[in-house]
Amino acid sequence: MQASVQWLDNVSFKATSESGHEVIMDGSAEYGGQNRGARPMELILLGLGGCASFDIVTILKKSRQDITDVKCELQAERADTIPAVFTKIHLHFIVSGRAVKEKQVAKAVELSAEKYCSASKMLHDGGVEITHDFEIIEVAE
């Protein structure tokens, strides 16, 4: 996998992924940022949410759960000192669907956390405390 990051101005950067997608990153105003894009650490958090959500959707579809929506809400804490690494991250999954089984969602969350999510594994092995929970919302036929 390859990527590139190009400085735009002040503390703004354009990141380009191997697949050709671009993301603008910008620092906070205290460092000269202009709120032109997400902060780099926000992108790490978003990547974790995307990686875990991909797993949840894939696993639930394979187990024939009739899901209509999956949302992952993340809350993170960072160290007070430089480097301000993540110390704790909590992922809360909101799974919507028809007759979705709690046992299947619990299994999907566990498999993502312990086996499939590369981002979660990397952060956890780096010392980040990662926790998960979920809720199921029943939708009408």
Residue runs with pLDDT of under 50 for 5 or more positions: none
Spatial gap, N to C terminus: 42 Å
Instruction: State the strand order across the main sheet.
Output: 1-2-3
Helix count?
A: 3
Structural class: alpha+beta
Please describe the biggest sheet, giving its number of strands, its sense, and whether it closes into a barrel. 3 strands, antiparallel
Protein name: Osmotically inducible protein C
Organism: Acinetobacter populi
Pfam family, one: OsmC
Brief write-up:
The protein has helices at 40-62, 102-116, 118-125, and strands at residues 3-9, 12-17, 22-26, 66-78, 86-98, 129-138.
Question: Secondary-structure blueprint of this entry?
Answer:
Blueprint: E1 3-9, E2 12-17, E3 22-26, H1 40-62, E4 66-78, E5 86-98, H2 102-116, H3 118-125, E6 129-138
Parallel strand pairs: 5-6
Antiparallel strand pairs: 1-2, 2-3, 4-5
Helix pairs in contact: 1-2
Provide an overview of this structure.
The chain has helices at residues 40-62, 102-116, 118-125; strands at residues 3-9, 12-17, 22-26, 66-78, 86-98, 129-138. 33% of the residues lie in helices and 38% in strands. α1 crosses α2. The chain folds into 2 domains: 1-38, N-terminal domain of TfIIb (Single Sheet), CATH 2.20.25; 40-138, K homology (KH) domain (GMP Synthetase, Chain A, domain 3), CATH 3.30.300. A 3-stranded antiparallel sheet has the order 1-2-3, with no helix packed on it. It is of the alpha+beta class and 141 residues long. The chain is elongated and about 50 Å long. It holds the Pfam family OsmC. InterPro entries: KH_dom-like_a/b, OsmC/Ohr_fam, OsmC/Ohrsf. It comes from Acinetobacter populi. This is Osmotically inducible protein C.
